[in-house]
Automatic annotation (TrEMBL), chain A:
Its cofactor is thiamine diphosphate. It is an enzyme of class 1 (oxidoreductase). Keywords: Oxidoreductase, Pyruvate, Thiamine pyrophosphate. The pyruvate dehydrogenase complex catalyzes the overall conversion of pyruvate to acetyl-CoA and CO(2). It contains multiple copies of three enzymatic components: pyruvate dehydrogenase (E1), dihydrolipoamide acetyltransferase (E2) and lipoamide dehydrogenase (E3). This is Pyruvate dehydrogenase E1 component subunit alpha. Tetramer of 2 alpha and 2 beta subunits. Coiled coil: none annotated. It comes from Camelina sativa. Its EC number is 1.2.4.1. Residues 65-360 form the Dehydrogenase E1 component domain. The keyword Oxidoreductase applies. It catalyses: N(6)-[(R)-lipoyl]-L-lysyl-[protein] + pyruvate + H(+) = N(6)-[(R)-S(8)-acetyldihydrolipoyl]-L-lysyl-[protein] + CO2.
Automatic annotation (TrEMBL), chain B:
The keyword DNA repair does not apply. Transmembrane segments: none annotated. Keywords: Oxidoreductase. This is 3-methyl-2-oxobutanoate dehydrogenase (2-methylpropanoyl-transferring). It catalyses: N(6)-[(R)-lipoyl]-L-lysyl-[protein] + 3-methyl-2-oxobutanoate + H(+) = N(6)-[(R)-S(8)-2-methylpropanoyldihydrolipoyl]-L-lysyl-[protein] + CO2. Pfam families: Transket_pyr, Transketolase_C. The keyword Oxidoreductase applies. It comes from Camelina sativa (False flax). Coiled coil: none annotated. CDD domains: TPP_PYR_E1-PDHc-beta_like.
Length: 389, 353
């Protein structure tokens, strides 16, 4: 019964786990205060405090979910190499703290929209592993019915607006969602995520201007992993201080590898956005993999740099140290947790592999609204083969 | 499935030379190169022959994501070959300005799917510059290169064929090569053409297509279509990577006694109407094939023009075998693509009309 509170957190993920774990997972919600690793740097606003309110339940939850995300991405790597995932696959390992910290600060009524590195954000929004792997492998059970693939995950009931391929194009969309939220008096905000490469797109500034003009509850989050594909940020941007690029819009620079800093910043941003209008968050984060599975990730950065970040700033390691230092679990228990996660991921993959591909007729569905009526001809255009639904 | 086989067939016996009328360059021997190497060679020659030419775009400095710009930055310096930030509209606008000052700006858009932010610059600025300034200014030195077309698993945003959008704009030229040898000659012509040109490169063929490419500087004229295979029963018109598929269909049709004439359009805007017209007047039937969706695709323009010019000579309606009217799909790519079997089917239907 105490355990069930944990499992209600994210559907589909926690259930098998909580049953197997027999030591009491602390579902203690007595507050623990965590200090963020670095202070926040602010632009045109007062930075929030470095002390973050948390609880043992949240700490363990962070660890579990981030470990799950990490395992999921590594598994996706192997699946891609085995050619079960085709197309493009952009992995998020290293950046998990952003996804998890953001979720901890907001509700499912707040919207998130991001670019193509969306697997973990989808999971954070309540997506299940089965949906993730099915979509990656193009199966029917996928969240986009197998028609989207890695770059196009969506979850309407959790206000997750995807999953976009064209860099920068999602930001004006996010501002539009924020407008709708304000118009409908929903007391909710939209987080529009983009990368350091996308930060140089013109449409971003157009959307920012509009949001600031109309005081929209839009929070623009730059996930700065310092490389736009293979181009280092200093080679693409005159001012790599992305949090300042809003000029007249306030900004906050956050250590994106510290889940608690992310949580604090997102909470701060949400309050700001509801009250005053747009704000920019820059998450200083890092990805271990290359830009996508076609990129080894080592031609434009040294292996030392990657392993350096892994040793010093890894988000999961940080949470692990906190868990151990607050005596919420032992090393062995955490290792067992990781084993459980590995099994869960393997099970989800096996289940997804058994799932069928979409029906051929699905090629034509959802091009237009159903019933709009378009015809599809056979190869010689003489015979009507099908009416597009 | 058929698409997979079709794709693997590209590696062997690429569009074989020897069929039909060929230009002198095609009989020369050279080094065996693939498409990206041929384009690379063309760029080296272009930059070498004109000190006021520049190559820029996203990631071109290290060679580009498809290696077309390898070695250029090292040889010509970072002042002439440089990376831009991620902003297509900015890149093309910048290129137009550079070209307006009399330079040759060779812009790379990383994938044709990303060219749309720059669409306004191309259509409203580049295409109309000479016209609206009464010939005082022009951006003829502008050449925009972009990889286009299906690649087997590219999905919605790495497989599009946007040539039809650009063919609708008077003031620019649209050129699509079919093979390494053609690509080198056509690209050099595009760069040296005094009009802004959009050059689409079939990304599928970057590594797959290997051909003997002469090492010297040569140009293949624009707006001249080429009959790459002669026949009497039906004319097939295509461009780019699709020609390989069409040639396979032609070979199969030949086994059934249908003699097909295959034309590579090369330049889509302005296109060589005379060659196609002469061919259709001979055969009396026309089939057009392209990867882009059928409605509003460039095949419609060819069909309408030929109908005007050859109405009484046509034995059957013009047939178009193209991509379907859906966004370019992910898992459904084999169904979407205009495959060899669809073309063969249409050839037979048209001939037996």
């Amino acid at each position: 019964m105490a355990l069930s509170r944990l499992s209600s957190r994210s559907n589909g993920i926690a259930r098998p786990f909580s049953a197997a774990f027999n030591r009491f997972i602390s579902t203690d919600t007595t507050p623990i205060t965590i200090e963020t690793s670095l202070p926040f740097t602010a632009h045109l606003c007062d930075p929030p405090s470095r002390s973050v309110e948390s609880s043992s339940q949240e700490l363990l939850d962070f660890f579990r979910t981030m470990a799950l995300m990490r395992r999921m991405e590594i598994a996706a790597d192997s699946l891609y190499k085995a050619k079960l995932i085709r197309g493009f696959c952009h992995l998020y390992d290293g950046q998990e703290a952003v996804a998890i910290g953001m979720e901890a600060a907001i509700t499912k009524k707040d919207a998130i929209i991001t670019a193509y590195r969306d697997h973990c954000i989808f999971l954070g929004r309540g997506g299940s592993l089965h949906e993730v792997f099915s979509e990656l492998m193009g199966r029917q059970a996928g969240c986009s019915k197998g028609k989207g693939g890695s770059m196009h995950f969506y979850k309407k009931d959790s206000s997750f607006y995807g999953g976009h391929g064209i860099v920068g194009a999602q930001v004006p969309l996010g501002c539009g969602v924020a407008f709708a939220q304000k118009y409908n008096k929903e007391e909710a905000v939209t987080f529009a995520l983009y990368g350091d490469g996308a930060a140089n797109q013109g449409q971003l500034f157009e959307a920012l201007n509009i949001s600031a003009l109309w005081d929209l509850p839009a929070i623009l989050v730059c996930e700065n992993n310092h490389y736009g594909m293979g181009t280092a940020e200093w080679r693409a941007a005159k001012s790599p201080s992305y949090y300042k690029r809003g000029d007249y819009v306030p900004g906050l620079k956050v250590d994106g590898m510290d889940a608690f800093a992310v949580k604090q910043a997102c909470k701060f941003a949400k309050d700001h956005a509801l009250e005053k209008g747009p704000i920019i968050l820059e998450m200083d984060t890092y990805r271990y993999h290359g830009h996508s599975m076609s990129d080894p990730g080592s031609t434009y950065r040294t292996r030392d740099e990657i392993s350096g970040v892994r040793q010093e700033r890894d988000p999961i390691e940080r949470i692990k140290k906190l868990v151990l230092s607050h005596d919420l679990a032992t090393e062995k228990e955490l290792k067992d947790m990781e084993k459980e996660i590995r099994k869960e991921v393997d099970d989800a993959i096996a289940k997804a592999k058994d799932c069928p591909m979409p029906e051929p007729s699905e090629l034509f569905t959802n091009v237009y609204v159903k019933g709009f009526g378009t015809e599809s001809f056979g190869p010689d255009r003489k015979e009507v083969k099908a009416a597009l639904p | 499935m058929a698409a997979l086989l079709g794709r693997s067939c590209r590696k062997l016996g690429f569009l074989s030379s020897g069929h039909g009328a060929r230009r002198s360059v095609s009989t020369e021997t050279g080094k065996s190169l693939n498409l990206y190497s041929a384009i690379n060679q063309a760029l080296h020659i272009a930059l070498d022959s004109d000190p006021r030419s520049f190559v820029f775009g996203e990631d071109v400095g290290f060679g580009g994501v498809f290696r077309c710009t390898t070695g250029l930055a090292e040889r010509f310096g970072k002042n002439r070959v440089f990376n831009t930030p991620l902003c297509e509209q900015g890149i093309v606008g910048f290129g137009i300005g550079l070209a307006a000052m009399g330079n040759r700006a060779i812009v790379e858009i990383q994938f044709a799917d990303y060219i749309y932010p720059a669409f306004d610059q191309i259509v409203n600025e580049a295409a109309k510059f000479r016209y609206r300034s009464g010939n005082q200014f022009n951006c003829g030195g502008l050449t925009i290169r972009a990889p286009y077309g299906a690649v087997g698993h590219g999905g919605h945003y790495h497989s599009q064929s946007p040539e039809a959008f650009f063919c609708h704009v008077p003031g620019i030229k649209v050129v699509i090569p079919r093979s390494p040898r053609e690509a080198k000659g056509l690209l050099l012509s595009c760069i040296r053409d005094p009009n802004p040109v959009v050059f689409f490169e079939p990304k599928w063929l970057y590594r797959q297509a290997v051909e003997e490419v002469p090492e010297h500087d040569y140009m293949i004229p624009l707006s001249e279509a080429e009959v790459i295979r002669e026949g009497n029963d039906i004319t097939l018109v295509g461009w780019g990577a699709q020609l390989t598929i069409m040639e396979q269909a032609c070979l199969e049709a030949e086994k059934e006694g249908i003699s097909c004439e295959l034309i590579d359009l090369k330049t889509l805007l302005p296109w060589d109407k005379e060659t196609v017209e002469a061919s259709v007047k001979k055969t009396g039937r026309l089939l057009i094939s392209h990867e882009a969706p059928i409605t509003g695709g460039f095949g419609a323009e060819i069909s309408a023009t030929i109908l005007e010019r050859c109405f009484l000579k046509l034995e059957a309606p013009v047939s178009r075998i193209c991509g379907l009217d859906t966004p370019f799909p992910l898992v459904f790519e084999p169904f979407y693509m205009p495959t060899k079997n669809k073309i063969l089917d249409a050839i037979k239907t048209t001939v037996n009309y």
